[in-house]
Amino acid sequence: MKTSELKELIQIFNEAGLSKLAIKNQAEEITLEKQITIAKQLPPAAESTKPVQPASKAVSENQLVVKAPFIGTFYAAPQPQAQPFVQVGDQVKKGQQLGIIEAMKMMNEIKAPAAGRIVELQAANGTAVEYDQPLFLIQK
């Protein structure tokens, strides 16, 4: 790996707020790891101003929440001007692509874990998503 590529990887690692990243291929193996320490309590004025998401409705037994498997940017369509992969009311098959999460300059497909109907889209196109954040609600 070139030095410039390694510097870019370290920058992405730091910006993503990761604590550990391991990359391995046939030629090389790289592990980046940060020691996490618990910081002092911040004063109230310095706390995050990130808006709190409203509590989602209770999910019934025949509904399935599709969550983000990692942090990144969520895209509902393959290209900016293209139609979204799915919309509310669409029937989906198991394994059908629902969206994309871009993480570390890689596009990762989000697929339906089961067949059903899209009841709710819980992430907006082009927005940052957190690990385990609900993206879709599917009625089985």
From TrEMBL:
Pathway given in the UniProt record: Lipid metabolism; fatty acid biosynthesis
Organism name: Liquorilactobacillus nagelii
PROSITE patterns given in the database record: BIOTIN (PS00188), BIOTINYL_LIPOYL (PS50968)
NCBIfam families linked: BCCP (TIGR00531)
Keywords: Biotin, Fatty acid biosynthesis, Fatty acid metabolism, Lipid biosynthesis, Lipid metabolism
Cellular component, GO annotation: acetyl-CoA carboxylase complex
UniProt name for this protein: Biotin carboxyl carrier protein of acetyl-CoA carboxylase
Keyword Lipid biosynthesis recorded: yes
One biological process term in Gene Ontology: fatty acid biosynthetic process
Positions of the Lipoyl-binding domain: 63-139
Keyword Zinc among record annotations: no
